[in-house]
């Protein structure tokens, strides 16, 4: 299974060059980052790429680290070319944002994590992929750039649906900014899959901010359940303002299972997905709470 | 039926000249842009130790190589992407009369049967032992998720990795470093 | 695979019927439809690029409108074949006017996807189907508003 | 002084001799073989499960630059006979309907993946480009996916000229079944379902063919049985046998049965080479592989057991309905596997009264092809799990029910006619329970339950065939069952062994050499093994069904013994001894007179005399040092026992389960190389776990295969499976020269019943049963919530 003929290959080393190419070729070109989804699609001839723009050499897309924005807010900036391997194991992620490594360390396998990028994963927007959920849970901001300028979206605005995002053909995702957590915040992610490292049958990501044992705010997203990671708004509302006990988390899990709209496929039925959400929802919420107490998201 | 017009016109086949270092040797070749790296290694360079098992999505890992220090699947890369890269394939791991401890481990512990997954499997073991010289059984199992073996049930592969780890641990540091120069 | 959906269109059922059965409108509204030519009564030749923005398949085939009762219902039978396989759909579309300029459209049917797409994309197919139906009815709503405006 | 024991190789866990080349990346697999001027084939396959082909337009494909030829079904059919020639049709009695088969579809397709058009191009990328340009118009026909539907008399016929959709129907059994059921205290009656799954080796199929008018056809193919294929090619393609040479590559990337049949593509590739007079290469891609080969096990058992209240099984009735797919794959036709599963249904148990009614039904799926635990996988599940259900129903310890029913006297012939040669099945079973620490686990189970943890223990048996002798094989596959080998001592005193089989990772280069080294008293490095080339090796049925250690090794041993007689005569003559032929010891590359150790001749000298200086041979003796032997055991068939046990923990909320321990007690007669035997058992168990829990070929109602990549067909990785413990419990068989028996083929068989019984024991709730495979967490959760 081999790709159709490709007539041009560009490997720009600067963002400017890259944006020029996108401006010139737009629709005809495909951006090649990690290639772990694009190359299979090309082999299956389900995607067509007469022109390939390989962004692996673009320095500006490789930023990684904490940064102060002009607003004075501190963020974790993750360049679009950051590999899953870094997200799974970087000390900064492990110590301050473990929800990201929760998700990144079980993406596929070592080889995929060595190659795959966060930008590729988010733009591909596979509903069962691991990274969209924590990015949504952390209220991240995604910066898209093109020759025409920049656009910034919240993660929630970025994902439109099944494998669809707001990104335009002449744009590229430059980086993701994850806001520094408020004090007392913890977050966690869990995936249930058929075999180790496989796409999620269900995944759950939760962030909870606690003050004096009371939930100040929360954010919960569920992956693998339908065409786009789904926010559990009612569950969040249920938790907000409540003193967190194990009983409350159990009830919150019930609310979550109740509110989520789940689809069936051959990996699992809708009913069984709810069984899994019920089983693991509580664990994820508990872990988020525990991390809130330890100030780790 | 009416012809499916424009989409089925043959695309124009572009080519590009690349230079790659494979197992210490430099190769310069003009390749079609669409050529997969695994085909470049196997068919252009004749390094047929790297295998293809899943054809599409890379799940099987038989084509695993070490590229610029990381184990990756060579069926999920275009050859042109490897321009300027430093690659290790199974052919560069050891010599028949001077096997790498990983190869020795697989031999001693019967870590292979049909041998088809073995080259890719050993590339993943290479990457594992480079960063984690004393892996636990669970760590070995997780490090090999990207390499399917259909013969061994993995039991002897795990023993092979442990054997190699022990052998390597017993070596002086310079020798160890030489074993993991990729 | 079952397909179903309910959509509301802001015009009366006769207009909705006309929109949904008018090849010119369909050419504008069906996502990915490249061309539609009448080949005999109620049977059209269609060239369709179906899928998502990033993942597409090209299909060539026919669209048939049968059992049509103006303003009430019709069946849409589609068949397409392409390099990636085939699509078949048989959908009963029922119209119910719920107010003067509001019509409820009920779609109920079966679709079969065959070939490469079925073999690798099972967990995605129903998502793609509902996305495409959503896109279609969104476009039809626009057409309906246009028609209403013209009418007014 | 040299003793025999010092040179003994059999029984030693030595490293394999094939490994250095494989470890260095120098293995030679089918994909590595490319001849000068090679063209590449890509097949356009049906996207419909059942349809008439209204039109095929290949014009654009033909005009695509780099395309050498585009070929459709009628052209190929005109050049050959229908593929199912009499010599490859099994003769198992019963009622058989045989489909007409040609390499490419003509007029009609019967399953998604049915090959329709072959594109031949200058390279493989171009062949695929052109495939995109082929336009096929289909007229869909009703799709039959359910074998029970297909059985109904008003069902459409998949093969229109047949009287029904039943490919084969027949009955097996013996004894007074009616009486057994009349006298039973309890009758268990359940429907068991085994899903479609199989072996899928990591290397797909592949072939390289070349043809010229002088040497004829040469086909390199990763086949398990090159000789059988050669014979069939000659007959089907109407080429004289001497103009057909089949060569299996030195290295084959696993097969597990899937590379044993004669496939339509094999014939096609040969035809294309003959047509084009250029080498033609086809390497199956994974997608076509997952929709074409390696699918097995798909059957329903309506099983009834007549049981005495002490757990003794008095009789068995089973109605089996097997979904054999389109039934068009050569040699097996999809029905030999279910038939064998039926023949082996009673497994390791003494059940005198048996009646089995087997219907093999065609559907719009690919034909079943053999997969390790050939035919036995669903049958083992039904039989052994049923014994556990009996124990639960009668409130007996399943240990006692098993022990009561296990075969104790050998040889034993089952009611279905299968001969168990020898062994100690009860001993192996008891060893397993000891290894599991059964009583303690049962105690721990009680403790764990108090803490809300559900632990269970289960077990099952597998009496696996260890090769099948001609008595059975001739009927089963119209082919001999003997093992064959030629042993030659060359001019340098090196020993060459030629076998007619063709291994795929089993380690023949090591195990055969171990046996031969002992026989001839040479070092293992003095021996080289040749196989795969039908122009150079003796005829044999191929590497399959655990034949290696039972039959092929035995043939090599017998060939050595034939040769030894001659060598001893030469030695006696050279030493000037008056001696009977049995008076020499073979050790250290020397032939030593037992009566006087100082009288010895080196093998090199004997080889030199026999080959290079025949004038020095005893008067009248023929020159040369080689012998060929065909080994046939003096019994219809040999079996070897494996007993599996597992301890699992189940989460009753999700049905998820974890295997805490998996233990196998295994008998292979005499292990030639215990390390290799363990490897076989590990691999077999993990494949069994994959097939039981993770792997399923799923079809939708339109017959579309939904698992056509390894992202959807979930082979377990190292992180998905437990450690496997193996305990040897070997009883040498008296029916082979070394007491050896083949091992590995049947290992996956006992896995589903082992896991199902352990899970059932963990749940321990009246009425809870797992009657359908696979055992996924969701299926267990459903079973848990259905019986409430």
Automatic annotation (TrEMBL), chain A:
GO MF assignments: FAD binding; oxidoreductase activity
Protein name: Carbon-monoxide dehydrogenase medium subunit/2-furoyl-CoA dehydrogenase FAD binding subunit
UniProt keyword terms in alphabetical order: FAD, Flavoprotein, Oxidoreductase
Residues in FAD-binding PCMH-type domain copies: 2-183
SMART domains: CO_deh_flav_C
Pfam families: CO_deh_flav_C, FAD_binding_5
PROSITE patterns (UniProt xref): FAD_PCMH
Organism in which the protein naturally occurs: Thermoflavimicrobium dichotomicum
Domain of life from the UniProt record: Bacteria
From TrEMBL, chain B:
InterPro entries in the cross-refs: 2Fe-2S-bd, 2Fe-2S-bd_dom_sf, 2Fe-2S_ferredoxin-like_sf, 2Fe-2S_ferredoxin-type, Beta-grasp_dom_sf, Diverse_Oxidoreductases
A GO term, aspect molecular function: 2 iron, 2 sulfur cluster binding
2Fe-2S ferredoxin-type domain segment(s): 16-93
Keyword Transmembrane tagged: no
Keywords: 2Fe-2S, Iron, Iron-sulfur, Metal-binding, Oxidoreductase
PROSITE patterns attached to this UniProt entry: 2FE2S_FER_2 (PS51085)
Spans through the membrane: none
Annotated pathway: Alkaloid degradation; nicotine degradation
This protein's name: Carbon-monoxide dehydrogenase small subunit
Organism: Thermoflavimicrobium dichotomicum
Lineage of origin: Bacteria, Bacillati, Bacillota, Bacilli, Bacillales
Automatic annotation (TrEMBL), chain C:
CDD domains attached to this UniProt entry: CoxG
Domain of life where this protein originates: Bacteria
Record protein name field: Carbon monoxide dehydrogenase subunit G
Pfam families: COXG
Matches recorded under PANTHER family: BLL0334 PROTEIN
Signal peptide location: none
SUPFAM superfamilies hit by this protein: Bet v1-like
TrEMBL record, chain D:
Keyword list, A-Z: Molybdenum, Oxidoreductase
GO molecular function, one term: oxidoreductase activity
Domain (Aldehyde oxidase/xanthine dehydrogenase a/b hammerhead): residue spans on this chain: 24-142
InterPro entries from the UniProt entry: Ald_Oxase/Xan_DH_a/b, Ald_Oxase/Xan_DH_a/b_sf, Ald_Oxase/xanthine_DH-like, AldOxase/xan_DH_MoCoBD1, AldOxase/xan_DH_MoCoBD2, AldOxase/xan_DH_Mopterin-bd_sf
Keyword Oxidoreductase on entry: yes
PANTHER family linked to this entry: ALDEHYDE OXIDASE 1-RELATED (PTHR11908:SF132), XANTHINE DEHYDROGENASE (PTHR11908)
UniProt name for this protein: Carbon-monoxide dehydrogenase large subunit
Record lineage: Bacteria, Bacillati, Bacillota, Bacilli, Bacillales
């Amino acid at each position: 299974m081999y790709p159709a003929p490709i007539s041009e290959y560009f490997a720009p080393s600067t963002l400017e060059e890259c944006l020029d190419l996108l401006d010139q070729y737009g629709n005809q070109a495909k951006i090649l980052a990690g290639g772990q989804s694009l190359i299979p699609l090309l082999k299956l001839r389900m995607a067509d790429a007469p022109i390939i723009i390989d962004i692996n050499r673009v320095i500006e897309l490789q930023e990684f680290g904490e940064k102060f924005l002009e607003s004075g807010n501190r963020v974790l900036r993750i360049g679009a070319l950051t590999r899953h391997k870094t997200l799974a194991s970087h000390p900064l992620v492990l110590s301050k944002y473990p929800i990201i490594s929760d998700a990144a360390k079980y993406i596929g396998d070592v080889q995929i994590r060595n190659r795959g990028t966060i930008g590729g994963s988010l733009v591909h927007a596979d509903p069962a992929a691991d990274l969209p959920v924590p990015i949504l849970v952390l209220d991240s901001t995604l910066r898209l750039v093109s020759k025409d300028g920049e656009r910034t979206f919240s993660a929630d605005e970025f994902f439109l649906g099944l494998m669809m995002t707001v990104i335009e053909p002449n744009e590229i995702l430059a980086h993701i900014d994850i806001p520094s957590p408020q004090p007392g915040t913890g977050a966690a992610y869990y995936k249930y899959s058929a075999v180790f490292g496989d796409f999620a049958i269900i995944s759950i990501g939760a962030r909870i901010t606690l003050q004096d044992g009371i939930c100040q705010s929360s954010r919960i997203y569920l992956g693998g359940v339908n065409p786009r990671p789904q926010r559990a708004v009612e569950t969040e509302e249920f938790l907000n303002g409540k003193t967190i006990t194990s009983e409350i988390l159990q009830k919150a899990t019930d609310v979550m299972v109740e509110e989520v709209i789940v689809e069936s496929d051959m990996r699992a039925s809708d009913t069984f997905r709810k069984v899994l959400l019920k089983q693991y929802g509580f664990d994820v919420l508990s872990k988020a709470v525990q991390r809130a107490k330890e100030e780790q998201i | 039926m009416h012809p499916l017009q424009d989409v089925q016109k043959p695309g124009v086949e572009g080519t590009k000249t690349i230079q790659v270092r494979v197992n210490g040797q430099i190769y310069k070749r003009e390749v079609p842009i669409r050529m997969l790296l695994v085909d470049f290694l196997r068919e252009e360079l004749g390094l047929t130790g790297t295998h293809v098992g899943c054809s599409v999505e890379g799940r099987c890992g038989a084509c695993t190589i070490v590229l610029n220090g990381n184990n990756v699947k060579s069926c999920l890369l275009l050859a042109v992407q490897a321009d300027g890269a430093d690659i290790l394939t199974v052919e560069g791991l050891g010599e028949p009369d001077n096997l790498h401890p990983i190869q020795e481990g697989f031999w001693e512990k019967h870590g292979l049967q049909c041998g088809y997954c073995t080259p890719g499997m050993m590339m993943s073991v290479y990457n594992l032992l480079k960063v984690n010289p004393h892996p636990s059984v669970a760590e070995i199992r997780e490090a090999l998720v990207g390499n399917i073996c259909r013969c061994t049930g993995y039991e002897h592969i795990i023993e092979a990795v442990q054997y190699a780890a022990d052998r390597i641990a017993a070596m002086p540091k310079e020798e160890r470093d030489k074993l993991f120069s990729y | 695979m079952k397909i179903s959906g309910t959509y509301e269109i802001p015009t009366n059922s006769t207009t909705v019927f006309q929109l949904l059965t008018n090849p010119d409108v369909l050419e504008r509204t069906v996502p990915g439809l490249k061309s539609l030519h009448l080949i005999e009564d109620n049977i059209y030749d269609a060239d369709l690029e179906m899928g998502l923005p990033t993942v597409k398949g090209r299909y060539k085939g026919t669209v048939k409108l049968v059992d049509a009762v103006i303003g009430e219902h019709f069946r849409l039978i589609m068949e397409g074949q392409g390099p990636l396989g085939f699509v078949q759909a048989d959908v009963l579309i029922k119209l119910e006017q719920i107010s003067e300029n509001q019509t409820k459209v009920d779609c109920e049917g079966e679709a079969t996807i065959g070939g490469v797409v079925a073999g690798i994309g099972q967990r995605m197919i129903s998502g793609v189907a509902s996305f495409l139906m959503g896109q279609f009815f969104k476009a039809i709503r626009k057409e309906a508003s246009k028609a209403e405006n013209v009418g007014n | 002084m040299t003793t025999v024991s010092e040179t003994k190789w059999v029984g030693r866990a030595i490293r394999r001799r094939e490994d250095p080349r494989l470890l260095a990346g120098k293995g030679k697999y089918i994909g590595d073989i490319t001849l000068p001027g090679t063209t590449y084939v890509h097949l356009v396959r049906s996207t419909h499960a059942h349809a008439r082909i209204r039109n095929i337009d290949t014009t654009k494909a033909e005009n695509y630059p780099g395309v050498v030829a585009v070929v459709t079904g009628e052209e190929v059919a005109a050049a050959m006979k229908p593929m199912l020639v009499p010599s490859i049709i099994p003769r198992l009695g019963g009622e058989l309907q045989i489909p007409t088969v040609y390499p490419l579809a003509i007029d009609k397709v019967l399953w998604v993946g049915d090959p329709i058009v072959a594109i031949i191009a200058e390279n493989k990328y171009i062949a695929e480009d052109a495939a995109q340009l082929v336009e096929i118009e289909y007229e869909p026909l009703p799709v039959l996916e359910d074998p029970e539907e297909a059985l109904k008399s008003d069902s459409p016929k998949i093969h229109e000229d047949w009287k029904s959709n039943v490919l084969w129907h027949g009955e097996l059994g013996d004894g007074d079944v009616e009486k057994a059921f009349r006298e039973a205290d309890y009758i268990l009656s359940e429907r068991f379902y085994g899903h479609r799954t199989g072996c899928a080796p990591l290397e797909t199929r592949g072939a390289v063919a070349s043809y010229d008018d002088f040497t004829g056809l040469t086909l390199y193919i990763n086949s398990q049985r090159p000789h059988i294929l050669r014979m069939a090619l000659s007959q089907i393609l109407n080429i004289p046998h001497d103009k057909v040479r089949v060569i299996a590559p030195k290295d084959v990337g696993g097969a597990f049965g899937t590379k044993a049949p004669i496939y339509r593509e094999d014939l096609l590739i040969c035809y294309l080479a003959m047509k084009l007079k250029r080498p033609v290469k086809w390497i199956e891609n994974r997608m076509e592989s997952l929709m074409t080969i390696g699918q097995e096990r798909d059957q329903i058992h309506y099983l009834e057991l007549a049981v005495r209240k002490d757990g003794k099984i008095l009789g068995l009735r089973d109605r089996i309905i097997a979904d054999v797919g389109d039934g068009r794959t050569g040699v097996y036709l999809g029905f030999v596997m279910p038939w064998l599963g039926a023949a082996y249904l009673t497994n390791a148990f003494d059940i005198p009264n048996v009646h089995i009614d087997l219907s093999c039904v065609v559907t719009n799926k690919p034909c079943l092809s053999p997969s390790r635990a050939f035919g036995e996988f669903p049958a083992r599940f039904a039989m052994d799990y049923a014994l556990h259900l009996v124990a639960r129903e009668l409130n007996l310890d399943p240990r006692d029910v098993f022990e009561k029913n296990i075969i104790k006297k050998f040889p034993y012939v089952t009611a279905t006619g299968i001969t168990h040669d020898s062994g100690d099945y009860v001993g192996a079973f008891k060893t397993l329970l000891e290894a599991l620490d059964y009583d303690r686990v049962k105690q721990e189970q009680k403790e764990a339950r108090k803490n809300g943890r559900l632990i269970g223990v289960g077990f099952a048996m597998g009496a696996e065939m260890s090769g099948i002798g001609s008595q059975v094989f001739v009927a089963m596959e119209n082919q001999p069952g003997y093992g064959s080998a030629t042993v030659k001592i060359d001019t340098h005193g090196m020993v060459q062994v030629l076998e007619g089989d063709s291994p795929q990772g089993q380690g023949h280069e090591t195990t055969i050499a171990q046996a031969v080294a002992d026989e001839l008293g040479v070092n293992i490095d003095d021996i080289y093994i040749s196989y795969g080339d039908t122009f150079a090796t003796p005829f044999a049925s191929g590497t399959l069904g655990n034949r290696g250690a039972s039959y092929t090794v035995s043939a090599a041993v017998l060939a050595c013994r034939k040769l030894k007689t001659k060598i001893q005569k030469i030695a006696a003559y050279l030493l000037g001894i008056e001696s009977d032929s049995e008076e020499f010891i073979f050790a250290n590359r020397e032939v030593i007179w037992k009566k006087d150790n100082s009288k010895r001749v080196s093998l090199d000298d004997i080889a030199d005399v026999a080959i290079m200086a025949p004038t020095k041979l005893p008067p009248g003796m023929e020159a040369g040092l080689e012998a060929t032997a065909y080994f046939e055991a003096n019994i219809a068939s040999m079996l070897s026992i494996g007993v599996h046990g597992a301890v699992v923990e189940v989460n009753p909320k999700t049905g998820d389960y974890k295997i805490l321990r998996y233990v196998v007690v295994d008998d292979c007669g005499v292990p030639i190389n215990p390390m290799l035997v363990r490897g076989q058992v590990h691999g077999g168990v993990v494949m069994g776990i994959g097939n039981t829990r993770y792997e399923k070929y799923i079809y939708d109602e339109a017959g579309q295969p939904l698992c056509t990549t390894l992202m959807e067909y979930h082979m377990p990785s190292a992180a998905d499976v437990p450690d496997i413990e193996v305990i040897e419990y070997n009883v040498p068989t008296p029916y082979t020269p070394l007491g050896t028996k083949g091992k590995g083929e049947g290992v996956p068989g006992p896995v589903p019943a082992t896991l199902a019984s352990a899970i059932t024991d963990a749940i321990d709730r009246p009425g809870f049963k797992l009657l359908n495979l696979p055992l996924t967490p969701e299926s267990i959760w459903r079973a848990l919530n259905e019986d409430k």
